[in-house]
Write a structure and sequence with these properties.
The structure is a homodimer of 226-residue chains. Chain A is of the alpha/beta class and 226 residues long. In chain A, the strands form three sheets. A five-stranded parallel beta sheet of chain A has the order 2-1-3-4-5, with helices on both faces. A four-stranded antiparallel beta sheet of chain A has the order 6-7-8-9, with no helix packed on it. In chain A, 45% of the residues lie in helices and 24% in strands. The first copy, chain A, folds into two domains: 119 residues, Rossmann fold; 94 residues, Arc Repressor Mutant, subunit A. The mean pLDDT of chain A is 84. In chain A, α2 runs parallel beside α3 and α6 crosses α8. Chain A is elongated. Chain A has eight helices and twelve strands. The interface between A and B is medium-sized, with 26 and 23 residues.
Chain lengths: 226, 226
DNA sequence: TCTAAGGGTTAACAAGTGTTAACGTGTGTT
DNA sequence: AACACACGTTAACACTTGTTAACCCTTAGA
């Protein structure tokens, strides 16, 4: 069960691109290579990668713009920028555009790989599904429990899924349609009403901590504030 | 509610240490400064920091050894190494010892801060959207609340967006068309009238502080005076 | 097989939110 | 002063969401 980790690599300079691609493949990554931003976006959509490595200056769509677009739909995936620019200002800009790391050319392949590994590890550590802090509550996603001090309440499967989904986008809007497709499989009238019912149920179970709220954003979805 | 983020900084070169410490404090971090590895370990144990910034070459206990020790008891806390070494080999070693990032001297303070922010996964570079002072009111953009002393009123999503937009240009004109495109998506007759309705609603909710006004600039837009 | 319990969906109605309409007021121009 | 036009305000309306309860289905145990 050792499926390869998928990487989308966007780099317009062919020689460099080839070297990096091969080096990554040697390390048992599956590399999807794009030579411009638009192509990279398509590869991202189709291949469902674990991580993105983006050159900043590319034809058609630069790395920053691309990252911004991808961040709008995916806040989790790690992004590493590669660039010839070496000004601190550019590094700042990279992080502002949602990058997680920034490597200045010329860089060593080894360092790139280490930084990739680091981001992948961090990501997998990121949410401990058995120990999620939501305000004063402790939410255990696998056990489907919500603990406040000594009191432990159990959640149903739907409740647990919904809370987990909201948590993944905490303090930001979770799109109604996104939630519905993810948990109910389809966005239709009845599922939508059902979801609203579960929002009510969650609010009840979360109301012992006033700092936690599930706020509605009419027409868009819900925000878990914590 | 907005307690400072604690950082343990270990750096044996006093001048550099002082500069970094002050820069971080300017950014509202609480810095615990150690001049060697052993001291840093004690500070780590006592202050319960959110992140560690460790020089690699230090007296008594070097940064790598220290990181390794800390990693045995805490796998979560982010660690950034600072070093004069610039060989890739050292970068690798840094990550092997459980570091999350690695900065080569000389580095820019800005870059350090951005990398800290990135690891902490927060953007406190932005204005704190949970704590916006408007006159005597406290406006929480994510919670969509307006607080005056003990009274907390809730805003709807549109109200909150509008107030936030006006606030971003406080004391200057926010262009009608700009607001409409940003919040309503399009500048047409009906959306414009809708916006005017929301201006009325906001004025009502803000009238408890006489010093705050939303003034109209005929033909151009609105100004939030505060 | 019957029954009870739990979980999820559907139904029904209440409450909240945003848009549209209608009319009023102010401002600048001729 | 008369006029056109931008904005202010209120209310009606349509639509979305909140809440409760009834209902249905599955499962486990008597």
């Amino acid at each position: 069960m050792s499926t390869k980790i998928k990487i989308v690599l966007a780099e317009d300079e062919p020689n460099l691109a080839q070297i990096v691609k091969e080096s990554l493949e040697t390390r048992n990554f599956e590399v999807f290579l794009a030579s411009n931003g638009e192509e990279a976006y398509k590869l991202y959509k189709n291949s469902n990668p674990e991580i993105l490595v983006l050159d900043v200056m590319m034809p058609k769509k630069d790395g920053f713009t691309l990252a911004k677009e991808i961040r709008e739909e995916n806040k989790q995936i790690p992004i590493i920028f590669l660039t010839a620019k070496s000004q601190t200002k550019d590094v700042l800009e990279g992080f502002e555009h949602g990058g997680n790391d920034y490597l200045k050319k010329p860089f060593s392949i080894e360092e790139l790989i280490v930084r990739i590994q680091s981001l992948l590890n961090r990501n997998s550590l990121k949410i401990d599904v058995n120990n999620i802090k939501i305000g004063n509550y402790l939410f255990n996603y696998t056990k489907q429990t919500l603990q406040l001090k000594e009191e432990t309440a159990t959640l149903t499967h739907r409740e647990s899924e919904l809370l987990y989904t909201l948590y993944q986008n905490k303090n930001e809007i979770s799109d109604r349609s996104f939630i519905l497709k993810k948990i109910w499989g389809d966005d239709d009238f009845f599922n939508a009403r059902s979801m609203d019912v579960f929002i009510t149920k969650l609010r009840k179970k979360l109301k012992l901590d006033e700092n936690i709220q599930i706020v509605n954003v009419r027409g868009y979805g819900y925000k878990l504030i914590c």
